[in-house]
Amino acid sequence: MIGDLIRRAADALRSARRITVLTGAGISAESGVPTFRGAEGLWRSFRAEDLATPEAFARDPKLVWEWYDWRRGLIAKVRPNAGHVGLARWEARFPDFVLITQNVDGLHPLAGSKAVLELHGDIWKTRCPAEGTVRENKDVPLPEIPPRCPACGGLVRPHIVWFGEALDPAVIQAAYAASRASDVMVVVGTSAIVYPAAALPLAAAEGGATIIEINPDPTPLSEQAHITLRGKAGEILPLIDQALD
Fold first, then answer.
1. Is the pLDDT of residue 57 over 80?
2. Is the domain of 198 the same as that of 110?
3. By residue range, what is the domain housing residue 141?
4. Is position 108 annotated as part of the catalytic site?
5. Which tens digits make up the pLDDT trace of 149-171?
């Protein structure tokens, strides 16, 4: 049964002109990245919802950056899995390919993906609120907490979309445009309940795209997906790769 679904997925991809992929926390969890939500995300008795807000940063930027420094230290120890690597190969294989991710861990670029629409930002980048300048920063641990802008000397913040903040309009608009234009959309390791990301596969389906879902568990998207592959991205994506060759 799974073999037939793999072949159907490969056939759909092979015949598609425009392919869009949406990834969520599941693909990174396979590499060992904690969700930072719930019990496993507790740090000094704080929850993510206590710290990942503009209000928390305004109140105590040092505390917020100490939490992000801890998170960055954990993420720095993990590596992309076969799912990340497979999607990087797809970018090279398919001429019109767009990768959209809800993850902030940077594992897609680390795996070799060149153009990634990061809906929620990137934990390895900082942003200067005064200048709006975004810079890469991969120091682990950070030499100065809180870090400061090398240009103006002001405090910088993580380049992350926090609770209560809107997504970058340019990024979400590009994600919607790619989704609507898709011939095939592959949805990997996402719960399909966090909006506006959860609306992207629906926009793709409305545009006539074939929806392929890869997830170990059923989601609200499962009933609408044309092909549902139950399993981990690191296992399923290499099988589709083999079927494409």
1. yes
2. yes
3. 39-77+128-160
4. no
5. 999 999 999 999 999 999 999 99
